[in-house]
Design brief:
mainly alpha, Four Helix Bundle (Hemerythrin (Met), subunit A), 5 helices
Length: 166
């Protein structure tokens, strides 16, 4: 863990460690990294059963929403995409294996950047953003963990329906 600025909250280290582990590992659910690992390219664009989304659509949604939360949390002039259309891809399948890998890499990179914000925030972890509507970095971290875990479960379910989960 990087050096944390001094914080007046007596349990700051515990809170930061817990949030970072929740974002990385998931604790009570499959980690997002594992849910997105080793999926054959030809399965990424399939909407299983009567499901509304493919794995690609969910991964792109995770990437876009996570990027938005990250940028909102570190850039007071950030403008979010339009809801909901700006948070979903236009196609059910990725255009190439390289596009898939780029999405997965950005999910990991942006998640790690968010964790770095949490680890280096000190008391700013609890401060209300002046540019928001009552959000703090801690609140956004918990929203991110909740959002990613929800969609990781959907990815696992689709993989099970497609016979691609161990």
């Amino acid at each position: 863990m990087p050096h944390m600025p001094a914080a007046s909250h007596p349990h700051q280290g515990f809170v930061v460690k817990t949030v970072a582990e929740l974002l990385r590992k998931g604790n009570a659910h499959v980690p997002l990294d594992r849910a997105l690992k080793d999926i054959p390219f030809e399965l990424l664009g399939i909407r299983a059963g009567d499901g509304p989304h493919s794995i690609w659509e969910l991964a792109e949604h995770i990437r876009i929403a996570q990027w938005d939360l990250l940028e909102f949390s570190r850039n007071p002039t950030h403008e979010s995409p339009p809801w909901p259309e700006g948070y979903w891809p236009g196609a059910a399948a990725p255009p190439s294996p390289q596009a898939w890998q780029k999405t997965v890499d950005q999910i990991v990179g942006d998640r790690d950047a968010f964790i770095h914000l949490v680890e280096t925030a000190g008391d700013r972890l609890y401060e209300i953003f002046p540019h928001g509507t009552g959000q703090s970095l801690l609140q956004e971290a918990l929203v991110l963990a909740d959002h990613n875990s929800y969609h990781a479960g959907q990815v696992v379910l689709i993989r099970k329906m497609l016979g691609n989960w161990k």
